[in-house]
Design brief:
Distance between the termini: 20 Å
Mean pLDDT: 88
Strand order of the largest sheet: 3-2-1-4-5-7-6
Helix content: 25-40%
Radius of gyration: 17 Å
CATH class: Alpha Beta
Oligomer: single chain
CATH topology: Rossmann fold
CATH superfamily: Vaccinia Virus protein VP39
Order of helices and strands: EEHEHEHEEEHHH
Number of domains: 1
Number of helices: 6
Length: 208
């Protein structure tokens, strides 16, 4: 029997990036530190191993156990909205950017032997390490992410639009979560599949 690809999905959220990955090809460990969100992930992907842990620490201790790592560290401290005045939503408070993002990029680049990608928002500052800019995301990876680069993330669209774009029905969880925030932060599933396919195109080429 063909061995499944061992995937580590860090800062998993509700699993937007993971939604369209081929279940028969992957064995996924997802790490999410908010129990209520981890429970939602588990409802959508019961076949995955979901851990309520600190993703940054888990990566350091367990990175060598996986073939492919996807990391989406928290983005609010890097977002362009952080440096915009008068936004009125509390996002423009002056704070330090969370440097776990760059720690993970440097760590994966130098110590992880498999395929990896770190995803984040387009930042308000010039990135310290040059990323791919693809479909209104920053990506750092050790494989090429190719294809049509422009797409609307739909962050400011209606809830109906977001639900359709992301493909998740969170109506039963509204009492416990901010549905709009979760959907806005959720990677578009088609994008998640595209990046996955780019990674494993590279993997196949390396095996030849």
């Amino acid at each position: 029997m063909k061995r499944k690809i061992k995937v580590l999905n860090l800062y998993a959220g509700i699993g937007g990036n993971r939604k369209l990955w081929p279940d028969d090809e992957v064995e996924v460990t997802a790490v999410e530190n908010v129990p209520e969100i981890a429970e939602i992930y588990n409802k959508f992907f019961p076949q995955d191993n979901i851990l309520v842990r600190d993703a940054h620490e888990y990566l350091l201790k367990h990175y060598s156990e996986y073939d492919f790592i996807w990391s989406s560290p928290p983005c609010p401290t890097h977002s362009k909205i952080r440096n915009e005045a008068g936004v009125g939503c509390g996002q423009n408070k002056v704070i330090y950017p969370d440097m776990d993002l760059y720690q993970e990029i440097i760590f994966l680049k130098h110590f992880f032997k498999g395929l990896w990608v770190v995803e984040n928002v387009i930042s308000y500052y010039k990135p310290l390490i040059k990323p791919f800019i693809f479909r209104e995301h920053f990506f750092w990876s050790n494989f090429i992410i190719d294809g049509k680069k422009k797409a609307n993330r739909g962050h400011m669209e209606s809830m109906d639009y977001l639900r359709k774009l992301k493909g998740f029905d969170l109506s039963k969880y509204k009492k416990f979560i901010d549905e709009r925030k979760l959907l806005r932060n959720c990677t578009e599933p088609k994008l998640g599949l595209h990046v996955f396919n780019c990674a494993f195109k590279t993997r196949q080429e390396r095996l030849i």
